Each structure stands twice: as C-alpha cells, then as structure tokens.
C-alpha cells in the first residue's frame, strides 16, 4: 500500500523514538557486512534482545531513538535498513503517527477531504 504522490520527507522523526527496531538473522548479516563488521561483533555492539527474549532489535541511542540515526537525522544504514523501517508507515504504524509523520498528515488530510 502506498500513494505515489505522498512521499517520505526523510525527516527522521519515526527513527527518533523509543521502541524496538527488530532485525532478522538475514538482516543482521546484511547490516554487519555493510558496516564491515563480523556478525558476532555487530550483534554484540548494536543489537539487544526484546523483553520476552525472543527477538533481536537494534540498540537505542543515548537519547532513546535508533542508534543508527545520525546527527543530520539520516539513517546510517539506509541502503540495508531493516524491513520494519522500510515498511513504516505503509504496512504498519503507531496510533499517533500522524502527529510526527508527513505521510500520516497527508493521508489524514486526504481522508478528510474525501469524507
Ligand atoms: S535503522 Fe535507520 S531507518 Fe531504521 S529506525 Fe534506525 S535510523 Fe531509522
Ligand atoms: S516520520 Fe514519516 S516522513 Fe518522517 S522519515 Fe519517518 S516515514 Fe518519513
């Protein structure tokens, strides 16, 4: 699901929030390779277990957003970012995402106009 005329502004707001950024084993391999790190090294330095210890997530930064969001609010692993990131907000979203996401605002406006 997407709307060709509604695009991500790459503002970084969705990345600058607390919460799990889940990664699969394949994604870990891909990101580690992109960063020229051994999988074990990457896993130890940049991932954590979810509370139920069933899934692996990227770590948070000191301020609570994703550790891979740089100072310019861009993703340092954009080329290999996890599926969860690529799917937001078209395939999943937070309830309140319209408050911070340009796509959410545009979709809400469109829905109002069409109501
Ligand atoms: S991996 Fe990149 S796109 Fe995904 S939350 Fe982190 S900074 Fe954002
Ligand atoms: S908050 Fe919305 S517009 Fe901003 S980077 Fe995330 S998906 Fe793109």
Describe the structure.
This protein has 115 residues and is mainly α. The protein is built from four helices and three strands; from the N terminus they run E-H-H-E-E-H-H. It has one domain. It has a three-stranded antiparallel sheet. Strand 2 and strand 3 form a beta hairpin. Helix 1 packs across helix 2. The longest helix is centred in the last third of the chain and has 13 residues. It binds iron/sulfur cluster (SF4) (2 copies).
Characterize the quaternary organization of these chains: single chain
Biggest sheet strand order reads 1-3-2
Helix residue percentage = 25-40%
In the predicted model, the low-confidence regions spanning at least 5 consecutive residues are none
> How many domain modules?
1
Strand content: 5-15%
SS element count, helices: 4
> What small-molecule ligands were found?
iron/sulfur cluster
What sort of overall outline do the alpha carbons produce when their principal axes are compared?
Answer: elongated
Coarse structural class = mainly alpha
In short:
With 115 residues, this protein is mostly helical. Helices cover 31% and strands 7% of the residues.
Structural topology:
Layout: E1 22-23, H1 25-34, H2 39-46, E2 47-49, E3 56-58, H3 83-87, H4 102-114
Antiparallel strand pairs: 1-3, 2-3
Q: Keywords for this structure?
A:
binds iron/sulfur cluster; 3-stranded antiparallel β-sheet; 115 residues; 3 strands; mainly alpha
């Amino acid at each position: 699901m997407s709307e060709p005329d509604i695009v991500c502004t790459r503002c970084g707001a969705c990345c600058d929030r607390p919460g799990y950024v889940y990664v699969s084993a394949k994604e870990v391999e891909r990101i580690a390779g992109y960063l020229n790190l051994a999988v074990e090294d990457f896993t130890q330095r940049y991932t954590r277990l979810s509370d139920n210890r069933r899934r692996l997530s990227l770590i948070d930064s000191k301020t609570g957003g994703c550790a891979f969001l740089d100072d310019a609010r861009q993703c340092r692993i954009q080329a290999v970012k996890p599926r969860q990131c690529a799917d937001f907000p078209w395939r999943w979203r937070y309830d309140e995402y319209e408050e911070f996401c340009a796509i959410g605002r545009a979709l809400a406006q469109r829905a109002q106009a069409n109501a």
